[in-house]
Write a sequence for this structure.
């Protein structure tokens, strides 16, 4: 089995690429970083440090690499069995045209074997959104053939892969936590579902997508924003702060009530899931900066993302949201000159005020009483009166 994987960064190499290679899939990475591409193409392997209570270094083999801007992308898509991505939500649209050209080449060469495409991104139904972008670049005459021969499989992915500096100077070395979860929608595959250890096909994907988004992503973001606000450099240091931990856990329990009511999750099991995530944030082997985790605050304050989507759920199911509001106010306070969206957010607030800025980004009506509460918490933080 052959796969083309877009994104040879830490997540691509340390998570998806590793799982595929471990399942004896030949993985070709496609990326724009020529130095990384050349090194993978030369060595056909790289080390992954899996860190936790029992840390190990594993060698990922059976890999190759090409430049994602080259014509080789079409050649590979014309023949592979699987296409995966780990490029970031904003990059998906940029590579859609290249994937479309590969699909056209596949059709022209008469390759009617099933091809499945899985976007492994921190977004809800990312592959479905990717499909829309790909279809924009395809002739309408091909749409029916594509729907018959190509599966667009949504997924939920979960593994903390922080930027890591190699102790040996190896640019391919990557560090990941022990825990990983790759859930895929089994109803969207064309042909047989590949047997890949660590990839779990389910028929209720949205429950797992929202469980991860409302718990891991929500908690991670709030830890980052409160940590950054308090001049704390890493996620581990931030979650070990009692006040921050209390708010983060409270926010995850608030969003958890939404999940329990929406998907009939077992309360005790979901509480154990929250505790597991808190312990992952504490992992002493992972050095993850609050500035990195907090980046792109405008995206993270969107209606379908990790802060506002669970908040909307608290309206729907009439559950508490005090800690989620603190997390949102902390996100609005994120001032990082090295982050383009943080700069844009600060300007938007300066121009329009925090209420109008938040409502514009989140889509929440300014008359909603929680907006006033967020404004009050935001102002207290601005005045350094937040305890």
């Amino acid at each position: 089995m052959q796969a083309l994987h877009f994104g040879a960064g830490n997540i691509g190499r340390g998570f998806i690429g590793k799982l595929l290679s471990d399942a004896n899939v030949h993985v070709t990475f496609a990326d724009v970083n020529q130095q990384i591409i050349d090194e993978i193409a030369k060595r056909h392997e790289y080390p992954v440090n899996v860190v936790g209570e029992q840390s190990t270094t594993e060698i990922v083999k059976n890999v190759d690499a090409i430049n994602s801007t080259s014509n080789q992308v079409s050649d590979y898509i014309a023949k592979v069995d699987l296409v995966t991505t780990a490029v970031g939500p904003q990059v998906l649209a940029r590579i859609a045209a290249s994937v479309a050209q590969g699909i056209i080449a596949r059709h022209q060469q008469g390759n009617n074997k099933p091809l499945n495409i899985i976007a492994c991104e921190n977004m809800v139904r990312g592959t479905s959104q990717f499909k829309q972008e790909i279809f924009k670049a395809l002739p309408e005459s091909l749409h029916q053939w594509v729907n018959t021969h190509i599966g667009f499989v949504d997924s939920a992915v979960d593994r903390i892969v922080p930027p890591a500096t190699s102790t040996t100077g190896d640019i391919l070395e990557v560090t990941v936590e022990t825990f990983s979860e790759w859930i895929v929608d089994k109803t969207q595959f064309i042909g047989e579902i590949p047997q890949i250890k660590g990839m779990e096909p389910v028929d209720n994907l949205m429950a797992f997508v929202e469980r991860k988004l409302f718990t891991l992503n929500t908690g991670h973001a709030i830890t980052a924003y409160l940590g950054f606000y308090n001049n704390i450099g890493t996620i581990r240091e931030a979650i070990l702060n009692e006040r921050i931990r209390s708010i983060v856990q409270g926010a995850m329990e608030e969003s958890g009530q939404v999940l329990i009511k929406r998907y009939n999750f077992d309360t005790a099991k979901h509480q154990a899931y929250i505790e597991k995530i808190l312990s992952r944030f504490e992992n002493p082997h992972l050095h993850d900066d609050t500035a990195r985790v907090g980046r792109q605050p405008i995206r993270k304050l969107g209606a379908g993302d990790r802060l506002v989507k669970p908040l909307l759920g608290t309206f729907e199911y009439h559950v508490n949201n005090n800690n989620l509001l603190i997390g949102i106010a902390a996100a609005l306070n994120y001032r990082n000159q090295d982050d383009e969206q943080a700069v844009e957010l600060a300007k938007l607030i300066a121009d329009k005020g925090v209420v109008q800025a938040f409502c514009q980004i989140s889509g929440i009506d300014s008359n909603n009483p929680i907006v006033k509460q967020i404004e009050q918490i935001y102002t207290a933080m601005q005045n350094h009166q937040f305890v």
About this structure: The longest strand covers residues 45-51.
